[in-house]
Each structure stands twice: as C-alpha cells, then as structure tokens.
Amino acid sequence: MKERVAYCTSKAGILGMTRAVALDLADKGVRVNAISPSLVLTELARDILSREHDPTATLARREAQHPLGRLGRPEEIGAATVYLASDASKWVMGQNLIMDGGLSVG
Prior knowledge:
Layout: H1 5-26, E1 34-37, H2 43-50, H3 55-64, H4 74-85, E2 96-99
Parallel strand pairs: 1-2
C-alpha cells in the first residue's frame, strides 16, 4: 500500500526478528513463529469502521479486496495460534503464517 513506509518497515522487522529468534532458541526446544492476519473483524475493527463516513460501504469495499470476499474472524486467528502452540506444529519453526483471505496473492 502507498504511504505505509513505517508500517511495512515494522512488519518486515518483526518477520526478521521471528526468524532470528527462532534460530537463537531452537537448541532449547523453543519454536518461534508469526501470524500475519489481514483485517480481522474484531470489536476494535468494528469501532474503527463505524467512524467512517459510510461504514457499510467501507466494510463492503474492504471485504471485496479479499478474494474470499470477507474479513477474517477472531476465532480463525485463535485456531491458528492454538495450532502453532500445539505439538501438531512441532516441525514448524521460524515461519510466518499469512492469514488474509487471499489478499496477498491477488
């Protein structure tokens, strides 16, 4: 996105830190991963959207940006977090799970 230099830089830093810390802690059996969600329909997101000139149109526009045609749900991010914290992902380390309804592939 345009005019998002600080935001993009901070996100890139987090991803680099995730990989570096994953390597630093691997020998201790600690796995470090990241989750990168797109817009998730949380209470905060609803509040921010409600301040728009036309909240309904803004929500529709934001949903249409995602190939799956909707925003993320908190429970979807929660499920991914549980997966990454569980033994089911014990071979996953230093990764970034992008959860964006296809936004980054479009």
